Structures are given as structure tokens and as C-alpha cells.
Amino acid sequence: MFKKLQAGTVLFVTAAAGLSHAASKMNVMTATQDLAALAREVGGDLVNVESIAMGYQDPHFVEPKPSFLLKLQKADVLAVVGLQLEIGWLPPLITQSRNGKIQGPGAPGYMDMSTYCQILEIPQGQVTRAMGDVHPLGNPHYWLDPENGRRIAKAFADKFSSLQPANAAAFGQHYADFDKRLTEAQKGWEAKMAPYKGRKVVTYHRSWPNFCERFGLTVVEYVEPKPGIPPTPVHTLDVINLMKRDGVKLILVEPYFDLRTPNSIASAVGGQVLVLMPSVGGNKEIKTYFELFDYDINMLVNAFAKFK
Questions:
Q1: What Å distances lie between residue 35 and 156, 259, 308, CA to CA?
Q2: Those residues with Cβ within 8 angstroms of residue 191's Cβ, 6 or more apart along the chain or in another chain
Q3: Exposed, middle or buried, 117 (CB in 10 Å: 0-12/13-18/19+)?
Q4: Residue 258, CA atoms < 13 Å, CB-side half-sphere
Q5: CB-based contact 25:77 (threshold 8 Å)
Q6: What is the overall mean pLDDT for the chain?
Q7: 3-state DSSP percent of the chain in helix, strand and coil, to 5
Q8: Cα torsion for 255, 32, 178, 191, to the nearest 10°?
Q9: Alpha-carbon distances of 156 from 48, 110, 169, 293, rounded to whole Å
């Protein structure tokens, strides 16, 4: 009888320990799937990670849902892109969550990831509405440089370690492993892009400055006449003339923009529209931060090979 009771006690204690471990997981919410992918790299099975915006959505415009509010109420950490990318939809959700851990700068679980990264296209002088949807604090698409991905991962490692000191060694090891893998992957990406250094491209929106600077591409024009402003006939003709003059063949477009104008431009210049993914989750093939760059760089290399 005693042996049976002892065995049952051991089983109960083991099960309770498992439940305690599960309950101790940090709940991490992120504004985008890119940040979520990097949080998972560092957190591993010690964190639960969910994102609000999906990778196939324009992160400037996300419809707030009650389900987001419920998740924010349980969050230990909230990571945002910042630079006013989410200004149209996230601040009310944060306020309504009444979760003191994530109530903006200064809260223990709030992370503005832009503060850890290299930011490009910071406007000089006064920013007005006449300039379009210009981000007054700089371009928020900074995660498209692997070096910024490394900085974001390190910030997560430090934050997670500060909130759960008992797991600091594990978070540190996860980051070290990610850093090593990213270094190797980046060498491969840069080698693939090296033959095309200096190639000129047109993009639809200003999503790609960090990516293009890292991999040696030159953006000469945008399909949008100004950020956030739909294409106009006059500007479209200007883009066609510029592409013909400079021999530019590729137009890079995000998956959530209308392809009619880019396709008409490409047809006029004998070029190609390339739908690149600016985010993890942009399609079903891209589930990790590494797969995001694998996908986009392979698409670019194959397209450039057609237009020697």
C-alpha cells in the first residue's frame, strides 16, 4: 500500500512540476510577425509568443479586434516596431488592456524595438502632411536588415533574462545560437547578391531602404508619388521615362498593394514586377526570420539573372 501511495505521490509531484513550468512561461505579444519570429528564436519553449498584425497585412493599417485586447491583458511583454508604424491602431488597445506591465515606455514589459536598431530616412526639418505619410522619426521597416534582426534578438535576450533571471542562461544560449546561425546565413545572402551590387530598382512603397542598403541595391524611384499616396498618371509616366532612361527593369512590390499600375509600368519598359515579402508570414513558405531573407533573395537573384 505504501509503495503504491509513494509511486502515486511521485507521479503527482512530477505532473505538478510540469504544470508549474507551463504556467511560468512568459506571454509575449508583438506588433508584427517579424518581431514574433525573433522572440521565438530567443525564448524557445520558455515563452508563448503571438503577434497582432499578420505578415500579409499592411502593418500601417490593422483592424483592432476584441481578441487582441484579451491577449494584451495577459501579456508579460509587448514588443512594438515603433516609429509610429502602429500609431493608427495599437495605442488604444494598449490603453484599454489596463495591463500595467505594457503601458508604454517605462513599463517593465514594454519594448520599442526601434530604440535598439539602425534607423534610416530620418527626415530633416519640419514634416507636413503635404509630404505624404512620412514617418517623422524615421523609416520603420528596419527589420529588413539582418544586423537589426541581430540587435532585436539581443534586446529580447536581455529583457527576458531580466524578467526571468532563473532562465537567463537559457535565453543567452538561445541568442548565441541564433547569432551564429544568422552570421552564416548572412554570408550566404551577401554572396548571392554580390554580383548585382549597385543594380537599380523601383519600389512601390518605402519599405526597402534597410534591405537595399545591406545588399547593395539602389532605389531610384517609387510607384507612389509620395509615401501613402496612390499612383497618379503623371507620376506613372515619369517613372516609365526614368526606367527607360536608366535601364531599370525590376519593380519591387509588397503583397498588399494593387498590381495594376506596377504591371503597366513593367509592360511599358519590358521589365518585371517582383512581389517581395516584407515580413515573416507574408506567405505560407515564410515561417522564420531566415526564411524571409531566403525567399526574397532567391526571388531577386532569379529576376536579375533574366536582365543581364
A1: 10, 27, 36
A2: none
A3: buried
A4: 8
A5: no
A6: 90
A7: 55, 10, 35
A8: 30
A9: 13, 11, 13, 20
d(CA 237, CA 225) in angstroms, rounded, equals: 11
Show the DSSP H helices in 142-232 as ranges: 146-163, 168-193, 209-215
Burial 202-230 (b: 16+ CB within 10 A, else e): bbbbbbbbbbbebbebebebbbbbbbeee
Mean pLDDT, rounded, for 40-64: 94
SS3 97: helix
Considering only residues 169 and 134, tell me which one the structure prediction assigns the higher pLDDT: 169
- Strands (DSSP E) along 185-305, which ranges? 200-203, 218-222, 250-253, 272-275
Tell me the Cα Rg of the chain: 23
Q: What is the pTM of this model?
A: 0.89
Question: Taking residues 256-270, what's their average pLDDT?
Answer: 97
Residues contacting 172, CB < 8 A, separation 6+: 157, 161
Query: Going by C-beta distance under 8 Å and a sequence separation of 6 or more, which residues neighbour residue 226?
Result: 131, 132, 133, 134
SS3 of residue 165 by DSSP: helix
Report the greatest alpha carbon distance in the chain. Answer: 91
What grid cell was written down for 302?
532569379
Directed axis angle between helix 289-306 and helix 168-193, to 10°? 0
Mean pLDDT of the 222-251 span: 96
C-alpha cell at 68: 487582441
With cut-offs at 50, 70 and 90, classify the pLDDT of residue 16. very low
Cell of 2: 505504501
